[in-house]
Amino acid sequence: MKRILLLLFISVLTFQIASAQQKPQYTQYVLNNMLINPAVTGIENYFDVKTGYRSQWTGLQGAPVTSYITGSVPFGSDFVEGDAAALSGGNQDNPYGRLYSQTYQAAAPHHGLGFMMISDQAGPISTTNIDLTYAYHLGISSTFNLALGVEAGYNHTSLNTSELVLENPLDPAIANGSNSQWKPDLGIGLWGYSSNYYIGISALQLLSQNMYFSTNNNYSQAKTVPQFLFTGGVKFFLNDDVTLMPSALVKFISPLPVTYDINAKLAFRSRFWIGASYRNGDAVAGMFGLNISSLINISYSYDYTTSALRTVSNGTHEIVIGIMLNNRDHIVAPAHSF
Predict the structure, then answer these.
(1) Fewer CB in a 10 Å sphere around the end CB: N or C, the chain?
(2) How confident is the model at residue 12 (pLDDT cuts 50, 70, 90)?
(3) Predicted structure pTM score
(4) 125-139 and 296-305 as β-strands: parallel, antiparallel, unpaired?
């Protein structure tokens, strides 16, 4: 029975890779939109470091486990060394609040440079993405910025054959092939933002690559495909200190069906927040976060699986830690995070 379940799981993974090699799934992408759009690079006025860990479908052997670290830093003296009151909306203590929005000024033109390292393991297949990111931010009006970004790097995919249970040790699907492959990676994005809303569009994994573990062409049908993402969010001020922040993400990944996430966060004086998320056909999630100081923040989410996998899954856990280095304005929460 264990062998049957393992083979079934591998078959599902193989089908997913053959039809559309996807990037990892995140529940808390709203805290680190650089994961889905390189144009967010350098959006904050400090060295923004985030690390995350996600254990998906716990209880299911070989289920996906994802970990990552990202970093982003702005360049441009008018932005980095500008007026702190302008950069923080005159209210460093509560950048989520109404006063921040009322006094907000668009950021001075500046550059952003960053990096991403993402590790994802699902069963016997491990994938690692290493990318550099760049963005240019330009003030279109007194309160609105537009950023254009690009990410470029490499994707490494490996197959651990020792975890496979094969009837034929020389199975032609993996025999005489390469179980460790490096492929180039490229993505672009556009991000428009103000104090109380944002909208973004990105195209990731633009360089379609054949993915194969065999030299036999009959088993070399898998390939990566471009992924197109649309996202947006807005802030509603319930009072001066309580803010409701709904957002959404839509993914177009051929030949898979269109998927979407709907999220809502309720923030209290930028010190802590609670939220919920719905992913169509997959899961509902609860999440919360603490902005501990002007240096560090932490958040946690739990996904309850709504698909057929709920019979064997104990849900999904995800934790994200953010570190705000060289935070000269001493803001306690990221000013452009929803």
Answers:
(1) N
(2) very low
(3) 0.85
(4) unpaired
